[in-house]
Design a protein that fits this description.
By secondary structure, the chain is an alpha+beta fold. The protein has three helices and 21 strands. α2 (102-137) packs antiparallel against α3.
């Protein structure tokens, strides 16, 4: 045979024999199953405690008393207080505006003169009646003459009463030429100037009181269950039991806080939003100081309110994300395995879930987001501390 044909056949045969020898002498690998890697999860250790519910709301500060300053007499404005400007502050009973009182002084003088005249006429009529009665007793005149004297005396007495009432009215109109502040407060706006003629009943300024302010807070009717408020309350709440309200706002580059009280709820429920309007009141401190922290918030400021609600015992607060299937949580047992447990949820608010049944002290609850969970799955745990401010512990 030709070498070109024999040589390839020999090479292939040698390769086949070598491969067979290697396969016959090689060691066989034993299949093994790798140990599964336990995922790491974050857990919190349960410590049930008494907590106080809170309800959050927002509102705008408004004055408790607001009124229009209206003159009761007409005339030219002859003096205006420097405080009667938009934003001006005034004390109670402070003079704010004066109207020309010359015509009213003349009216008082004329009324006083009328009183003097009618008083003299009344005295003469009484004396004349007494004289006629003496003459009748001596049978010098008839009874009709005495009756005429009695009528004259009564007319004179009525004229005196009318004159005294007119004098009192004239004096009252004179005092009304000076408009005084009915309370301590601020001027919202003013609509008059020096020399202007003002008519009776026309507003010259808008003012409001600053002894305390109010904030109307819309609260969902479901949230009222967490406030310690009487159902169908009429009028203001008892000051001793009314909930405390903490108000805060960002203003003038700083953060400010005020403490107030929830004093009442308005009579109606908003038909469109199903909200109940609760009214919080913030009073100014009565120590006479003028520090900013002693003053109530300015009118029109948008504030956030945290209303103190009712307390609950044996409550556990968990992140809302820890709740699974509506009413279950994942517990890590002593063997580091996950177990489902059904709990009773008292309230879900914002990012927190309030649980009042199903958990005991010492339980470890998984708070890590796991996509797939199998009951009994082994895990590695990392313990996290619960913030102390969570849940507002009852003092």
């Amino acid at each position: 045979m030709k070498p070109k044909i024999v040589l390839p056949i020999v090479v292939l045969a040698g390769a086949l024999i070598g491969s067979a020898a290697l396969l016959a002498t090689s060691q066989r690998l034993q299949p093994t199953q790798p140990e599964p890697v336990a995922p790491t999860v974050r857990v919190v250790q349960i410590e049930p405690r008494s907590v106080r519910m809170t309800v959050h709301a927002v509102g705008t500060v408004s004055p408790r008393t607001e009124t229009e300053l209206v003159p009761e007499v007409s005339g030219n404005v002859v003096w205006i207080s420097p405080n009667l400007v938009a934003g001006g502050y005034f004390e109670a009973s402070e003079a704010l505006l004066r109207i020309d009182d010359r015509d009213y002084l003349n009216a008082v003088q004329r009324a006083r003169a009328t009183v003097n005249r009618t008083q003299a006429e009344n005295e003469f009529a009484q004396f004349e009646l007494q004289r006629l009665e003496e003459m009748e007793s001596r049978q010098l005149i008839s009874r009709s003459d005495v009756e005429s004297g009695m009528r004259g005396a009564r007319v004179a007495e009525a004229s005196l009463q009318d004159a005294e009432a007119a004098l009192e009215q004239a004096e009252r109109n004179l005092t009304r030429t000076e408009i005084v502040a009915p309370f301590a407060g601020l001027v919202r706006s003013e609509q008059t100037d020096l020399g202007q003629f003002v008519n009776r009943g026309t507003s010259v300024a808008s003012i409001y009181a600053v002894d305390y302010v109010e904030v109307r807070l819309p609260i969902a009717d479901q949230q009222l269950a967490y406030l310690d408020l009487p159902v169908m309350q009429r009028g203001e709440l008892d000051e001793a039991t009314s909930p405390t309200v903490a108000l805060s706002a960002q203003f003038a580059g700083g953060e400010y806080r005020w403490d107030g009280k929830l004093v009442r709820t308005e009579a109606e429920i908003d038909a469109r939003s199903r909200m109940v309007l609760a009214v919080a009141r913030i009073s100014a401190k009565e120590d006479g100081t003028s520090d900013s922290e002693d003053l109530p918030p300015p009118i029109g400021l948008f504030v956030q309110a945290e209303i103190e609600g009712r307390s609950a015992d044996n409550v556990v607060i968990l992140p809302r994300s820890a709740i699974r299937n509506g009413n279950q949580v994942l517990i890590v047992d002593e063997d580091e395995r996950l177990r489902f447990r059904t709990v009773r949820i008292l309230r879900i608010y914002e990012d927190d879930a309030y649980i009042n049944a199903g958990l005991v002290a010492g339980d470890r609850v998984c708070i890590s987001p796991l996509q797939t969970v199998v009951d009994g799955m082994r895990v590695t745990t990392v313990l996290e501390e619960v913030p102390l401010e969570k849940g507002m512990p009852v003092q």
